[in-house]
Amino acid sequence: MDNRDALAKIAAEAGRGELAFPTHAEVSMRVRRALEDPELHVDAAARLIQAEPVLAARVVAVANSATFNDAGRPFADMRTAAARVGFRTAHSLATALLMQQLGGKAVAPAHRSLSVRLWEHTAHVAALAQVLARRVTRLDPETAMFAGIVHEVGGFYLLSRGTEYPELIEANAQGWQGEGEVIVGRAVLRALSVPEQVSEAMEHYWQGFLAMPPRTLGDTLLLADDLAPVQSPFQLLKDRNGEDVPCEIEMVLGTETLTEILQESAGEVKSLTEALRL
Prior knowledge:
Strand content: under 5%
Radius of gyration: 18 Å
CATH topology: Hypothetical protein af1432
Oligomer: single chain
Shape: globular
Order of helices and strands: HHHHHHHHHHHEEHH
Structural class: mainly alpha
CATH architecture: Orthogonal Bundle
Number of domains: 1
Largest sheet: 2 strands, antiparallel
C-alpha cells in the first residue's frame, strides 16, 4: 500500500463516519461539549478548563494577549481568564488543543516535525483571521479565529493515523493534495459539530478563490492563509500563486491599505499567535 492508497482508505472510512480520535483527547472533547451549554456558569467552566493543564495555560495566555487585555495588566486566575475570553473563545481554544492532540499522536520523527509545522501555520492563520475579520472584512472575529483553528483539520487527523499507516508520508506530503484530504476534513468537521457558517467557509477555502476585496468568512480565511509567514506542509492550494511563499497582496480599504492595517495590528497578531502556540 502506498501513501495514496492509505489516504484513499482513510477517506473512505471518514466518508462513512468512521473516525478514530486518540483517547488522550477525551478531556478536550468533554470540555468542548460542556462549553456549548448556554446555561454553564463561569465557575463551572473554569473548573472544566483547569482539568486540562495545557488548555488552562492557553486560556490564561490568550486572556492576557493584546487582543483581550488592552489594559496590559496581567492576571493568572482561571475564573477571570475564562470570563475575559468568553465561552466561545474558550471553546475555540479547546478545539485548538484537540487539533494538536491529533497531531501529537504521531510517533515517527517525520510526522512529529510535520505536526509542529502544521500547528505553527495554524496559529498564525487563526490570529491573522481574527484581526482581518475585525479590521478588513468586518465579520465576527471569534468565528474567524475558530475557522483559522480548524482550517487544517484534515491534515491533523491524517497525522493521527500515521502510526497505523506509516506509508502516508513517504517523501513529502504532496500525495495528500486532492479530494481525499477534503473528504477527511469534511468528516472531522461534522464530528466536531462545526457551525454551518464555518463549514461553508471551509468549502470556499478548499475551492481556493480569493475575492478582491475580501468580503466573506471564506475570503478572510484564504487571505489569512496567504499572509501567514509559516506555510502549511499540507497546503492544498499552496501553488495557487505559483510559489510556496506568502503572496504580496495590497489593496485600499477605506482610508487605509492592507499593509497599514497589518502594521498597526502586528502587536496583536504576534501576541495572539504566541498564546496559541503554547
